[in-house]
Amino acid sequence: MKLVPVHLSSLVDREMAAFRDTSQIRITARVAIDTKVMADETELGRVLQNLFENARRYGRSTDTGIAKVAVTYARTGPWVILSVRDHGPGVDPAKLGQLTTPFFRGDAARTAATGAGLGLAIVEKAVQRMGGAFEVTNAPEGGLVCHIRLKKAP
Known about the structure:
The protein is an alpha+beta fold. 28% of the residues lie in helices and 30% in strands. The chain has four helices and seven strands; from the N terminus they run E-H-E-E-H-E-E-H-H-E-E. The strands form two sheets. The protein has a five-stranded mixed β-sheet. Strands 1-3 form a two-stranded antiparallel sheet. The protein is globular and about 45 Å long. The two termini are 19 Å apart. The model is unreliable at 108-116 (pLDDT under 50).
């Protein structure tokens, strides 16, 4: 894996474009055009695919059945934090810490899905290999938020 400066907004746009079915998922992104992080572009692309797919499967809002996903970012010192948030049911707070454990699934709503339960475990490992950190938490207003912290590119 080779870490190079990656244009965050173009990568996010590219991965968003793959999720075109608006009856299932709608993704909006607010990432400054000049934001670059040190990452492996292919690997970071996979991380976003995993998070968007996770939201499409489990993050649908109860009223519309559509996963509304917001991608935002923040700069803090030498880091850029990319946040991917859905407005679905969220996860039992007691189980949040286990979401990145391989083969663990959050709850009944989140187990209806097929898949090996490796999504977030893979995401966490990939982010760590890029020198970053990954965190999953419930949004105060409901839904799940995934934070990807990566080194800002010079």
